[in-house]
């Protein structure tokens, strides 16, 4: 290949790549070609830098201002592009165009995020996760802005600043980052029993998802669907990952915070780059006012769910994420979601938390993006034609022509363009009678704060209940004020006496009297849909298997295992003490990763293809011992050949259903082995 540069070094030996030919010219932001991008303009070779240097000034000026305020919540996120395809049209429920025809596709972008931490925090703390989808429909943008938990901490938006202040870093000390295990959060929880339902979800395995690809999403609120005849119904939106819902275990999550703080972002990126596109079903729960009135809880209360057994889910479409962003800043940091972005056929309910979000999100975009014209940023702009009479403003990029910046106008009678006008088929708010006094009150139907946390608790397996109790114990152990712990325990007694007792025992505290509920809890029928373990999808698709080998390993066995994993839809990743290539029995092989930098936390299952001599040598290597011991402790499948026994023994691996020979690993790797946990660690 010919050298594309006229010159490659400067007077001081600095790299200079002065292009020629087809290489685009490097210019200033205003188009002036630049001849030297390595040196400032000076008065003499060793003299002072001159203020005249407009190239230096522009470059530094832009750099000084290239960061924008991070989101107050959901600051750390990852995005992916894709499309939504309608699979079951619902014109009888909604006139929304994207739901009108089977096979119709709508471009989407999705942002997954943590809630509490800053933009520079980690991916795997215990936290609620955001699941926000922008649909670029042919009727405008629809933003379904939800979380991976179907309920929220509070019932009224006026409490949102208090909630966020309590869970963020404590105001005097600036820590802990991305963690709820501290005084102020649990103080707020203990004083606001409406938070308990979401808290128990967050303390469950839902708070430490395995991957964004294996995470459910929920619209949280009750919305309305409106059909072409104006008939309305209530609706709740659900995203369901086709790979199934999976979680980490707590120790694994904690280790990943140090081992790979980009774990979820990397996982999403690599899956899409490899063509393993994440897919999600969009399902709805639709119901009428009569059913809503019959329920023992209020559908306008964002701290409540409607179990699938009461209102079954109907799958109406699927979403495929098939493209990574080209630029993190332009497509992630500048991406703006608005719950107020709806299209004809979708409308709002009177959920007081939702009503507050309709104001808050629009307001915050002006603060973050600096202009009311943020909708013109490509990632936020509708894909359909749009026009109105709004003009000017900071960073206006459109150049409207003519005098028609108001309506009505009659400029068309003078032969001028009169601009756009409303249409009969435009968005219409569903009519609803409104009556009553102006009051700062909350409906009595919102007063039951314990029945649904009890429902969630009773729907879990014994192992999942142990995880919840252990998580709350851990969090409260980080709380330094005893009166807060006691108040939380008094609230937990209204959820389940066993749960409260287990947490109290874990804290070495006596149980206080139960808090007096505003409304006594009732027992609701358990729902298997609320349990990850009961609905586990036993597949290797989307999963990753780490394969440890060393000098002398059987190459034929490695090749066979790699082939079997790929055939089952999994991704093999080979690991060795050295990555440059090792001599094996039957050939030579390079590893994908080096042992010390590829801990088993990064994989869904592991395999050991080792000679006896190699296993004995690795049994003296802490990285190898930790690789196996952690996989066992994190309840993962371990495949091995006979030669691996010395390393298995050194790592303390005891035979069980998840410790198998290499041939059985692809099947075993579809599961986690929850029964193993009771023999490995104390759970509350």
Features:
684 residues; single chain; 20 strands; 18 helices
What do these coordinates show?
The protein is an alpha+beta fold and 684 residues long. The chain contains 18 helices and 20 strands. Helix 11 crosses helix 13 and helix 12 (482-492) packs antiparallel against helix 13 (497-507). The chain is globular and about 95 Å long.
Give a brief outline of the structure.
With 684 residues, the protein is an alpha+beta fold. The protein has helices at residues 54-64, 160-167, 183-191, 196-203, 250-259, 263-273, 289-294, 328-333, 352-369, 451-458, 462-477, 482-492, 497-507, 555-567, 612-618, 622-633, 645-650, 665-668, and strands spanning 5-9, 15-19, 77-86, 105-114, 129-137, 140-147, 217-218, 223-226, 232-241, 279-287, 314-323, 346-348, 544-549, 571-576, 582-584, 587-589, 593-594, 605-609, 637-640, 659-661.
Relative helix content: 25-40%
Distance between the termini: 65 Å
- The best one-word shape is globular
The tally of strands reads: 20
What percent of residues are in strands? 15-25%
Mean pLDDT: 95
**Which structural class do the helices and strands define?**
alpha+beta
Tally of contiguous helical segments = 18
Largest sheet: 10 strands, antiparallel
Rg over alpha carbons: 29 Å
Q: Report low-confidence residues grouped into runs of 5 or more.
A: none
């Amino acid at each position: 290949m010919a050298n594309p540069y006229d010159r490659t070094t400067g007077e001081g030996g600095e790299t200079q790549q002065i292009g020629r030919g087809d290489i685009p010219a490097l210019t200033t932001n205003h188009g002036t070609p630049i001849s030297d991008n390595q040196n400032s303009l000076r008065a003499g070779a060793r003299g002072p830098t001159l203020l005249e240097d407009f190239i230096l000034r522009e470059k530094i000026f832009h750099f000084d201002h290239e960061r924008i305020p991070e989101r107050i919540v959901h600051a750390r996120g990852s995005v992916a592009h894709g499309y939504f395809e309608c699979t079951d049209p619902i014109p009888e429920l909604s006139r929304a165009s994207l739901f009108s025809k089977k096979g119709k596709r709508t471009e989407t972008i999705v942002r997954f995020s943590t809630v509490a931490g800053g933009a520079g925090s980690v991916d795997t703390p215990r936290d609620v996760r955001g699941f926000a989808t922008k649909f670029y429909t042919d009727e405008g943008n629809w933003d379904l802005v939800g979380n991976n938990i179907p309920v929220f901490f509070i019932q009224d938006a006026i409490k949102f600043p208090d909630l966020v202040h309590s869970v963020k870093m404590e105001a005097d000390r600036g820590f802990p980052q991305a963690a709820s295990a501290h005084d102020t959060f649990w103080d707020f929880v203990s004083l606001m029993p409406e938070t308990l339902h979401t808290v128990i979800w967050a303390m469950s395995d839902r708070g430490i998802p395995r991957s964004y690809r294996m995470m459910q999403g929920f619209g949280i609120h009750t919305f309305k669907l409106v059909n072409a005849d104006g008939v309305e119904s209530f609706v709740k939106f659900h995203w369901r990952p086709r790979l199934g819902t999976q979680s980490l275990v707590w120790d694994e999550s904690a280790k990943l915070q140090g081992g790979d703080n980009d774990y979820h972002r990397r996982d999403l990126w690599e899956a899409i780059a490899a063509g393993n596109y994440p897919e999600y079903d969009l399902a709805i729960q639709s119901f009428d006012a009569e059913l809503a009135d019959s329920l023992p809880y209020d559908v306008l209360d964002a701290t409540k769910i409607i179990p699938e057994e009461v209102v079954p889910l109907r799958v109406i479409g699927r979403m495929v994420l098939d493209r990574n962003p080209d630029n993190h800043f332009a497509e992630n940091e500048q991406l703006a979601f608005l719950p107020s972005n709806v299209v004809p056929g979708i409308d709002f309910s009177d959920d007081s938390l939702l009503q507050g979000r309709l104001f808050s999100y629009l307001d915050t975009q002006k603060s973050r993006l600096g202009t009311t014209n943020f909708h013109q940023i490509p990632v936020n702009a509708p894909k359909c034609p749009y026009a109105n009479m709004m003009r000017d403003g900071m960073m206006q990029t459109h150049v409207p022509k003519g005098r028609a910046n108001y309506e009505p106008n009659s400029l068309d009678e003078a032969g001028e363009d009169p601009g756009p006008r409303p249409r009969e088929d435009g968005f219409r708010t569903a009519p609803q009678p409104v009556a009553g006094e102006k009051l700062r009150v909350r409906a009595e139907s919102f007063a039951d704060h314990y029945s649904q946390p009890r429902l969630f608790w009773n729907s879990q397996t014994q192992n999942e209940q142990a995880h919840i109790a252990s998580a709350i114990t851990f969090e409260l152990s980080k709380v330094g004020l005893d009166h807060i712990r006691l108040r939380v325990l008094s609230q937990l007694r209204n959820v389940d006496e066993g749960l409260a007792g287990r947490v109290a025992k874990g804290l070495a505290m006596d149980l206080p009297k139960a808090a007096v509920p505003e409304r006594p809890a009732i027992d609701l029928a358990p729902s298997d849909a609320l349990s990850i373990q009961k609905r586990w999808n036993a597949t290797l698709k989307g999963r990753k298997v780490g394969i440890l080998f060393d000098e002398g390993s059987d190459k034929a066995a490695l090749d066979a295992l790699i082939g079997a994993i790929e055939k089952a839809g999994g991704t093999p990743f080979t690991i060795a003490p050295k990555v440059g290539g090792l001599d094996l029995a039957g050939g030579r092989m390079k590893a994908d990763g080096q042992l010390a930098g590829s801990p088993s936390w990064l994989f869904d299952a592991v395999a050991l293809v080792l000679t006896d001599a190699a296993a004995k040598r690795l049994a003296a290597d802490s990285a190898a011992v930790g690789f196996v011991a952690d996989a066992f402790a994190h309840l993962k499948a371990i495949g091995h050949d006979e030669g691996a026994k010395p390393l298995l023994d050194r790592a303390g691996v005891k035979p069980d259903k998840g410790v198998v020979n290499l041939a059985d690993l692809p099947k075993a790797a579809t599961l986690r082995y929850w029964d193993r946990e009771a023999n490995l660690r104390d759970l509350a």
